[in-house]
């Protein structure tokens, strides 16, 4: 049974902006009831209103800061009590500006908390119920950066590499009715490159053709949800890049990119 054939509830983290909002919109358009989570409650409430009005689905806003263990545990509890949960999207995430040293170790810790710890815990909370109901989808929003061995963002790249390995390995232990996806987008137009943590110059220096829209990224993710693919890369150019990176050749390209974006430590 495909994810569109019998709908239920989907829980999306990082649903106050960008890719998360787009998952909420597209899943609501299929008739999914939603639990949307992020820190900015006002945005979640506005999204809930919009989707309830446009699609007649029930949308519950669940504010949470995934760097806080108590908030993550509340969300875990929420997931365990949600008898119709079909889809969990671990999407919340962020980048941090500067070099590894200048970023400050707490930023790296928060990134691991949000990208890795929260995803592992929420997935764990979701799977028992999904297995009991013989149906479930876990989408971990990773990144093409998870394949990048060099060129800046060691903490970010490693946290996304974790999600890729975690998802692939997890799928191998699951019955066929559970599908796990690690979505690996490249540059996508969202708020990611201009947040409190991250002020990148990518929007100015990178050509338009490298960018994708959140709408296309999410549409591609959902189109592959019932396939056997775990690692899902939206956009032909990024699939070629991912292939090169996974064979090792792309490391050279990425080293050049690191120089281009000025991510070297200085003495
Ligand atoms: N945009 C890209 O180029 C790109 C490329 C590859 C992968 N990705 C990945 O895509 C995912 C979504 O990012 P995006 O591009 O949509 O960026 P975005 O527009 O900045 O959205 C990020 C979302 O994550 C939430 N978030 C951040 N920190 C959080 C925390 N401590 N607790 C709870 N929620 C938190 C934000 O909500 P609040 O601020 O309201 O908490 C927001 O809803 C991320 O995992 C990112 O790594 C993005």
Q: Explain this structure to me?
A:
The structure is a single chain. The radius of gyration is 18 Å and the shape is globular. The chain has one domain (9-260): Rossmann fold (3-Layer(aba) Sandwich). The longest helix has 28 residues, at 105-132. The strands form 2 sheets. It has a 7-stranded parallel beta sheet, with helices on both faces. The protein starts with 8 loop residues before the first strand and ends in a 7-residue tail after the last helix. Helices cover 46% and strands 15% of the residues. α1 packs parallel to α2 and α4 (105-132) runs parallel beside α5. The chain has 267 residues and is an alpha/beta fold. 41% of the residues are buried. NADP nicotinamide-adenine-dinucleotide phosphate binds at residues 13-20, 38-40, 64-67, 91-94, 114, 141, 143, 185, 187-188, 190-192, 195.
Task: Write the topology of this structure.
Layout: E1 9-13, H1 18-29, E2 33-38, H2 41-55, E3 59-63, H3 69-80, E4 85-90, H4 105-132, E5 136-141, H5 154-172, E6 178-183, E7 188-189, H6 202-205, E8 212-213, H7 214-223, E9 231-232, H8 236-247, H9 250-260
Helix pairs in contact: 1-2, 1-7, 3-4, 4-5
Bound molecules: NADP nicotinamide-adenine-dinucleotide phosphate (NAP).
NADP nicotinamide-adenine-dinucleotide phosphate binds next to helix 1.
